[in-house]
Amino acid sequence: MRNKNFARNMVESAKESKSRLIFAADVDNAADAKAILKNHGPNLAAVKLHDAYISGWNMSPSEAVSMIKDTKDINPKIQVIIDAKLADIDKSNAKKAEYYFSQGFDAIISHGFQGAPAVKAAVDVADKSGKGVLLLMSMTTPENLFTLEITAALSYMAKSLDVDGVVSPGNKPDITSLVREDLGKNTLIFSPGIGVQGGGVESAVKAGTDFAIIGRSIFDSQSPSQAISDFNMRLNQALRDRDS
Predict the structure, then answer these.
(1) pTM score > 0.85 for this model?
(2) Which of 10, 56, 101, 122 is 20 to 30 Å from 135 at the Cα level?
(3) Domains in the chain: ranges and CATH
C-alpha cells in the first residue's frame, strides 16, 4: 500500500479552507492569477497550473509555485497541481515527474494510454518525493476518443497502481458515476468541465466528484469573489446532501 501523501494533504487542505474548489489558473497574465489568489486564497483547496500558461508568464515552474504558496493569507495547506498530462514511456515519464516535483508541485496529471508500466514510473517517483499522481479517466471535450471501455480499463489501472486520485469530467456525470462505481468510495475524483463547459456542481458531486476544477467561470465572471463563494457554497451543500 502506498502512503498517498497527496491524497491525505488534499483532504487536510479541504478542511483548512472549508473548500472543495480547485482554481484552474489558465490565464494569460500571472498578475491576474495572483490577484485572485491574493483575495481568495484562503477559500481554495488547490490550484491547477498548465505548463503552457507558466511559459507565457515568463516564469520558471518553481517561481509559479512560489507565487501561489507565498501569497499573503493563502490557505497554508494549499496544494499545487501541474497539468502536464504525462503521456510518454516510463523513463521519460519518470524524468518529467522528477522535474516538476523538484519545482515544488504537489501532484501531476498523467494519461494512461501509454500503459501501466509508464504510469507506474511516475507513481514510483511520487512515492520517493512524497508527491501524487492523478490518472486521467476521460476528457471534457466533445468527440474525444475515450470510450467507456477505455475508461473502464483506466479505472482498473488506477486501482492496480493505487494512484492518489483520478480526473473525470464534471460535465459528463454518467462517466464519472461509472468511474466512482469502479473505484469505490476511497479514491478521490477531481472534475474539470463544471461551469463554462456545461457541467453542474450538483450533478457532478452526485455522480462522485470530490473536488471541482474550475477556471473560466471564476476569472471571466464579473465578480470572481462572488463566483468562488457561490461555487464553495454549492459544493459543500452538494457534498452534505450526498453524504447524508
Answers:
(1) yes
(2) 56
(3) 5-243 (3.20.20.70)
